[in-house]
Amino acid sequence: MTLTPIERPGSVPAVSMPPTALAPVAPARRRSPYLRMEWVDAETGALGWLVVDSLVQGMATGGTRMRSGCTVNEVADLAYGMSNKTAAFDLPVGGAKGGIDFDPKDPRALDVLTRFCDAMKPYLDHHWVTAEDLGVTQDLIDTVFARLGMSQSYHAAIARSSNPEATTARVMAGLHAHTPGGALGDVIGGYGVAQAVLAAARATGRPAHDTTVAIQGVGTMGGGAAFYLHEAGAKVIALADAVGTLYDADGLDVPALLDTRDRFGEIDRDQVSATVLQLPRDAVLSTACDVLVPAAVSYAITADNCASIDASIIVEAANAPTTIDAELDLTARGIAVVPDFIANAGAVAWAWWLLLGRVGDDYRDSFAMLDAQMTSKVTSLVAEWTPSDGPIRWAADVSAIVRNPEPLVVP
User: What is the pTM of this model?
Assistant: First the structure.
């Protein structure tokens, strides 16, 4: 198998800085992934990929996505991001990602996902812990694992436990623990994004009640972030799903809107207040606000549309939502971009804390631990950043650091 370096879309031009600014030094070209494997579905012709970017103690972690147009470059980029997440949060595992080029709304999607996971079973049995991602809910992937006799998608890690049945019971209790926003496993990632937004705002002198937020995406990550930002007193003025953008300068009734979502994460327009403006889907990106949260698809912010962004801070809740050239342009404009592998890493960090027994089924313990770690990391990155340093991601990227993690022991 030939491995070649894979990069995010977009070239890397020189950063346009003020004449007096020192030109930042970009990080070195990243290494090739550890493993890249392609799968072809014999029944539909759908393509799928597993990319293991790094293997630590024989284990890597990262979700599986399904969307029409998914590519191997996208999956490799996401796997690289997972390596950064696990390193940034000092987790004793590497990074990987699965991806399938197929419409998740197609009635054959469950069977396609099942055949993909069956083909990847040697890795899912021993080396790869996967979970939900774009187009694939946790319930859906757990259904597939049950079909294949593996009980739960954390199967490879649980298999290392001395008492797999007890570990499975503990993990399931944590995943389904009740929180004010829903099941803990469903909302923890969005809660982490909300804390990243609040920390970034405070670091630039904005208290929660004076912070306006626009969020692209109302699925697990975007919806959770919107809920907890609303709970914290921030003003969520724009929410966008696949249908369009909902806008209210006085702040949206986030919980009421989220309650109308269907299984594809789309808000029922028949239940939207007449005082709420209904705008085109991409209008969310140009909304004048303090913080923009792209929480939908990868590569949503590009060189073609980044000039229209009217926010002081971008907190990346989706995986790889900003192309490299767009991020450089935004940086040159003084817009702080908190990278995805920090802002949206709460879900994977928490999953491994749960697996390792550091948290249980009391959501308050999980929230407290994630709040402390996310706030510390984001505050430091934003408070110490200046545009002449280059993108914040350069300072936050720890993927090249040689790691010596604690032994991977699943109780």
Answer: 0.89
| Number of separate domains in the chain | 2
Report if residue 5 sits inside a domain.
no
Under 8 Å between Cβ of 75 and 63: no
Task: For 164-201, write each residue's pLDDT tens digit.
Answer: 999 999 999 999 999 999 999 999 999 999 999 999 99
Q: Are 388 and 19 in contact (CB under 8 A)?
A: no
Instruction: Locate the DSSP E strands across 189-268.
Output: 212-216, 235-240, 245-247
Q: What is the pLDDT of residues 384-401, one digit of tens each?
A: 999 999 999 999 988 666
- Cα separation values, 90 from 236, 255, 357, Å: 32, 34, 15
**Residue 147: both structure tokens together:** 């079909």
How far is it, in rounded angstroms, from Cα 110 to Cα 117? 11
| Same domain flag for 220 and 353 | yes
Let me know if residue 249 belongs to a domain: yes
216: left (phi over 0), alpha (psi -120 to 50) or beta: beta
Only one residue has tokens 């187009």, namely 135
| Beta strands at 128-129 and 60-61: parallel, antiparallel or unpaired | parallel
Q: Are residues 62 and 128 in the same domain?
A: yes
Distance in angstroms (rounded) separating the CA atoms of residues 317 and 346: 10
**In this structure, which amino acid lies at residue 328?**
L
Residue 89 identity: F
Query: Is the Cα dihedral 230, 180, 202, 399 positive or negative?
Result: negative
CA neighbor of 252 nearest in space, from 269, 239, 233: 239
Using alpha carbons, list the distances in angstroms from residue 225 to 47, 84, 175, 236: 32, 21, 18, 10
Domain containing 272 equals 182-396
CATH number, domain at 316?
A: 3.40.50.720
Q: Looking at the structure, do residues 127 and 200 belong to the same domain, yes or no?
A: no
CATH number at residue 65: 3.40.50.10860
